[in-house]
Amino acid sequence: MYKLRKRLARMLENRKRLGQDGFTLLELLVVVAILAAIAGTATIALKDTDARASAAAHVAMMDELNKGIRTYRVIKRNELPSRFDSLMVTATASQESAGAVGLITAAGFPDTDIVTAVLPKGVVDIMVGGGFDALQYINEEGTYGDIAVGDCTNVNLKSTIASRKNSVVAGNIFMSPEANGCGYTVELADAITGEPIDFAGKEPNVVLWKGGSERLTGQPDAVPGSFFGKGNFVYMLTGVGPSSTLFNANELGGMTTVPVYRHVKTDEYNRFIAVWNIGTYGEGSGGTDKIIAGDQIELVAIVDGALDTKEEELGEWDGTRNTI
After folding, report:
1. Neighbour tally for 158: CB within 10 Å
2. Count of beta carbons in the 10 Å neighbourhood of residue 314
3. For residue 201, what pLDDT band results from cuts at 50, 70 and 90?
4. Under a CB-based contact definition with an 8 Å cutoff, are residues 191 and 204 in contact?
5. 162 plus 212 within the same structural domain
6. Range of 29's domain?
7. pLDDT at 8 over 80
8. If you average pLDDT over each of 24-28, 106-110, 168-172, 237-241, which comes out highest?
């Protein structure tokens, strides 16, 4: 590139010395070639700049959410924020259907990293005891204002979000119909007693992480390679959406901005995900009755909307991993 610039400067100097006012066609072609080479170099240098900048911003947001939740807990004297997004869709607002399906298929989360499960009463007890007393669910029967019957069903969520006939967007999908969402709040204390919400003998369905402890904490599982291995930690996933009391600016400790995860399509869930340690697995190879509640629920990590950890997102920023 230096040689090309030097050659162009020499051409201009020669023309001045010879008293020539114009350029020949050949000289013009040389100039165009030089400019094309410069543009090509700039394009290569700026490749994926936007995506890498977004990745850097995502890492900062993950750190802020982690600090925000922990700070909230300290300020509120060991009380956690509540009303996080469950990432679950249920058939009715009473959640009587035991076959509740996850929003994962609608949001594009990798199925290899998650599994849906029913929380045992012991876990619900420690959640409520720690202030985490409610979760946001999508009610497939929800209707209000411009949300029509059938709009909130799992199979129609993407088309509902993409439609210009309503005000539903991916970021508010778990908010109530009054707030242009499809969501409703399940009070976990009601789940324990069964009143006034009828859970048909079951506590709330949630999404669990099965990507292993090492990806989250750097420490291996007690039983590596086994999701239900005895002694392995149980990690619950919740979306950090605008319904959470973490973003109640009227309360001490509340954050004022709800971070948005940008590496998704417009019809996919675009919030960050909180990972909670809710206990360990007991004896056996499956079943939520094998989950043994811990002393209290603990925030382990914040992952992005694609369930990538902070270290994996940093790989997108420094170019060692493909951006999404």
Report:
1. 18
2. 17
3. very low
4. yes
5. yes
6. 2-45
7. no
8. 237-241
- 182 in a structural domain: yes
Which of 246-269 are b and which e, b meaning 16 or more Cβ less than 10 Å from the residue's Cβ?
bbbeeeebbbeebbebbbbeebbb
3-class secondary-structure state, position 277? strand
Q: For residue 60, which of 259, 242, 287, 312 has the smallest C-alpha distance? A: 259
Quote the distance between the C-alpha of residue 28 and its chain's center. Answer: 52
Q: In one letter, which amino acid is 276? A: W
Cis peptide before 196 (omega within 30 of 0): yes
Is-contact 140 92, C-beta < 8 A? Answer: yes
Residue 269, C-beta contacts closer than 8 angstroms, at least 6 positions apart: 85, 87, 103, 106, 107, 108, 109, 170, 173, 239, 305
**CB neighbours of residue 301 within 10 Å:** 19
Q: Looking at the predicted structure, is the pLDDT value of residue 268 above 90? A: no
Domain count, the chain: 2
8 A C-beta contact, residue 174 and residue 85: yes
Report which of residues 140 and 1 the model is more confident about.
140
Name the residue type at position 64: E
pTM of the predicted model as reported, rounded to 2 decimal places: 0.78
Give the H or E element holding residue 293: strand 291-303
- Please return the burial class of 1, using the count of CB atoms within 10 Å of its CB with bins 0-12, 13-18 and 19+: exposed
Tokens 């509740």 identify what position? 100
Q: What is the DSSP letter of 53?
A: H
Residue 230 has pLDDT above 60, yes or no: yes
CB-based contact 252:216 (threshold 8 Å): no
3-class DSSP state of 9? helix
Domain check: are 29 and 81 in the same one? Answer: no
